Amino acid sequence: MQAHIITIGDEILIGQVIDTNSAWMAQQLNKIGVSVGQITSITDSPEHLVDVLTKSLKTYPITLITGGLGPTNDDRTKQTLAKYFNSELVLHQPTLNQIKKLLNARNLPLNNNNLSQAMQPEKATILNNTMGTAPGMKFETDGKVVFSMPGVPFEMKYLMSEYIIPELSEKYKLSPIINRTILTHGEAEAVLAEKLQTWESQLPNYISLAYLPSPNMVRLRLSAPGNASTNIANEIEAAITKLYSIIPDIIYGEEEETMQNIVGKFCFDNNFTISTAESCTGGSIASIITSIPGASNYFLGSIVAYSNNVKVNLLKVSPETLQNKGAVSEEVVKQMVIGACNATNSDFAIATSGIAGPDGGTDEKPVGTTWIAVGNKLSQEAQCFCFGSNRERNIIRASASALNMMRIFIKKAIENNK
Amino acid sequence: MQAHIITIGDEILIGQVIDTNSAWMAQQLNKIGVSVGQITSITDSPEHLVDVLTKSLKTYPITLITGGLGPTNDDRTKQTLAKYFNSELVLHQPTLNQIKKLLNARNLPLNNNNLSQAMQPEKATILNNTMGTAPGMKFETDGKVVFSMPGVPFEMKYLMSEYIIPELSEKYKLSPIINRTILTHGEAEAVLAEKLQTWESQLPNYISLAYLPSPNMVRLRLSAPGNASTNIANEIEAAITKLYSIIPDIIYGEEEETMQNIVGKFCFDNNFTISTAESCTGGSIASIITSIPGASNYFLGSIVAYSNNVKVNLLKVSPETLQNKGAVSEEVVKQMVIGACNATNSDFAIATSGIAGPDGGTDEKPVGTTWIAVGNKLSQEAQCFCFGSNRERNIIRASASALNMMRIFIKKAIENNK
Q1: Is A268 in the same domain as A243?
Q2: Is A220 in CB contact (< 8 Å) with chain B?
Q3: pLDDT level of residue B215 (50, 70, 90 thresholds)
Q4: Of A15, A212, A388, the CB nearest to B30
């Protein structure tokens, strides 16, 4: 069962507003077994809507429209749909009552704009919107259904949750889709694809696989029609189990997990504390860790040591090491780990030192060269990475790699303690 | 001149990824006089692309496609476009060289997936992508132009800025639109709109004004058809001059400027150094400052003092003050400024301490309460803010407010030195 989402409004087409509604709607629809076949953002023009809607009704059993229901002149969705479905606009008393109620609460008088908002197409089923002045509408034609909603996110979400999702799942008795996402870090998409070639070729043909790369990870998504109680769920589970056996070190989590959540949970559950000593990442790792609510339970602090003086004074890095090995070196990041543990009194620490760019590279250490160490006062593990020439990406990738190294180090510490 | 943006990828249609590319692309296109007529997000299916592209070529002179250029089996845009435009895939040596270069930098071997990425449609003009392994492509047919780019945002941005925007503005000799953006911080949209009511009503009718609010600022965009040499440019300039006289304290910059750029430039030009002492912002301010290339010229470091021990040991905050006034207090943030200046030996410092949430609030200091101080060893200015209940937004708003306070403090210091 496929749906088409049509979003109406010039603000999306001029780039003023990012369309976040569609992603939310797609997630909700997927849960009840409706997949989204297309999302189309169009102008406020009635002709444009008629054109796209005509095509949608030929292809999709379900069309969901958002936007263009406001009280001003540039909002013409209701008029256009009424005409399209040969429907007169008539006064809809429950909508007028709702508008009056909202205006009363704000001590505002009823004006002509409001009155025209209470006029609704007679052939539509009106979906009462307690969150705003414009109700939703449902039209049915030749077994196809078209819903229209305001584009204001919380009004759209109300109408979706209250009417549309329950109605669709009742009407179509849909078979849901299982989506499982496995998170990997440390291998490029192409390398991963090669490692997983045989495994992928052995997947049953009703399980589809997608590689979703981003700068610091590749997500693997397995999808199939079915629900948690069917055999397909077991098949997907078996495929994932096999996947873990092929790339155990590369998988760091599943679904919506993040490195910072996983590291945070390890620390919280084991009463560990952590800190960071950051040079090239400039506080980025600390800010990622502290983006998690409750981070103050295990994160003690960070020393962002951008200048060598700060490395020496606060992290007690040896000036001789800095002189002989350079700030971007294994020895320095290991000393930074010890220094951060001592300065903040934390159990573990992460340290980074690299050339983020665009300047500062040398032949021996080009832009992107980054040393990362993790560990505690007694033991540190360090690794050198060669990222690229883009400063922003180097910081993102260094932060993710450092968090991943910390994750692995703490995981081992927990296992060794058992 | 109208363009159609087609984004390819199941991840958008299942709601896993929000399409932020299209808004950015629309903004860039608008600047050169190209409006976006439609944005269509489609599946990875070749038939779907063929269907939408065929319709696009009937309506739009420009079609911009993103996504589906990865090395894995679910990425089929290149193959589909090659077939659509009756074009063989042939080895494109510059692309192969670029892939080898990227792999070499990461010490990775060349595999079959990479090799197939170097095969490109012979009839396409290949747009070299120094940011990744998949180049862009340009096809021309019947006076229409079709561009295809990777969906990875910074790769798309590179190809747009480097090739597509310059080519489109050259090819179509478009009548440009003047866009001027004034950046404000510190007033909500509704309050600002009220203050600017008279000014707005006096704008010539060919100058349009848009309020573009985001969590930490409101941008005011003035647009009119014309170019820098016309009288309209002067009229816009006059309106902006008047705007400065109405809200001098609220405007912090123009166009693409950022607080961190402005603070960085002040420091660089005057040989000042800065540091931060962050509690609730958790390293976010340091990471914003160090996102700017060359920040190491003026940014010395940061102490992220999440625990009170770190505040006492590294920032020399008085334990009595912490005890009597609490960590979230004027006295503590002022001491943190002095502590950061001493610990890093910087001229100026920024300090934050607040309750980011969602927990930790009290009746007296609810979630969102944030003390911020800026200054030097001799003099500090502090301010208390009441942000909201959302942790992420509180951190963003505290960081922006802190940078703005630092901007104003340093600006005054420069003026007093003159």
Answers
A1: no
A2: no
A3: low
A4: A15
Nearest CA in chain A to B43: A37
Please report, for the domain that includes residue B195, its CATH number: 3.30.70
- Give alpha helix (H) positions in A106-255: 112-117, 153-159, 165-172, 189-195, 197-201, 231-246
* Interchain pair A294, B391: CB under 8 A: no
Domain match, A140 and A58 both: yes
Do A405 and A336 reside in the same domain of the chain? yes
What's the rounded Cα separation, in Å, for the pair A99 and A133?
5
Residues of B with CB below 8 A from A306's CB?
A: 290, 295-296, 299-302
Please state, rounded to an integer, the average pLDDT across all residues of chain B: 92
Count of CB atoms situated within 10 Å of the CB of A306: 26
Residues A158 and A201 in one domain: no
Q: Which of A224, A254, A284 finishes a domain?
A: A254
- DSSP secondary structure code for residue B296 in this structure: G
Q: How confident is the model at residue B393 (pLDDT cuts 50, 70, 90)?
A: confident
Residue type, B336: M
Q: Which residues contact B193 (CB under 8 A, 6 or more apart)?
A: B200, B211
pLDDT higher than 70, residue B402: yes
Is the Cβ of B41 closer than 8 Å to some Cβ of chain A?
Answer: yes
* The model's pTM: 0.78
Domain of B62, in residue numbers: 2-172
Q: Is B378 on the interface with A (CB under 8 A)?
A: no
Enumerate the residues of chain A whose CB falls inside 8 A of the CB of residue B47.
Answer: none
Do B122 and B199 share a domain, yes or no? Answer: no
Nearest to A287 among B113, B283, B313 (CB): B283
Domain check: are A211 and A233 in the same one? yes
- Return the residue of B nearest to A309 by Cα: B344
Please tell me the total count of domains within chain B. 3
Q: Give contacts of B276 with chain A, Cβ < 8 Å.
A: 283, 304
Q: Does A3 touch chain B (CB under 8 A)?
A: no
Boundary-marking domain end, from B197, B221, B254: B254
Alpha-carbon span B265 to A332, nearest angstrom: 30
Question: Which of A146-150, B14-18, B255-259 is the least confident region?
Answer: B14-18
Question: Residue A224: in which H helix or E strand, if any?
Answer: strand A217-225
- The answer to ipTM > 0.90 is no
Which CATH number belongs to the domain containing residue A239 in this structure? 3.30.70.2860
B315-340: pLDDT as tens digits: 999 999 999 999 999 999 999 999 99
Looking at residue B217, what is its pLDDT? 84
* Closest-approach residue (CA) in chain B for A34: B14
Judged by CB atoms closer than 8 Å, whether chains meet at A42 and B38 is answered as yes
Annotate A330-356 with b (16+ C-beta within 10 A) or e (fewer): bbbbbbbbbbbbbbbebbbbbbbbbbb
Same domain as B263, residue B250 = no
Same domain, A247 and A282: no
| Closest C-alpha among A16, A59, A14, A68 to residue A37 | A59
**Which of A221, A304, A386, A392 has the most B C-beta neighbours within 10 Å, making it the best mutation to test the interface with B?**
A304
Residue B141, domain CATH: 3.40.980.10
pLDDT at position A225, please?
A: 82
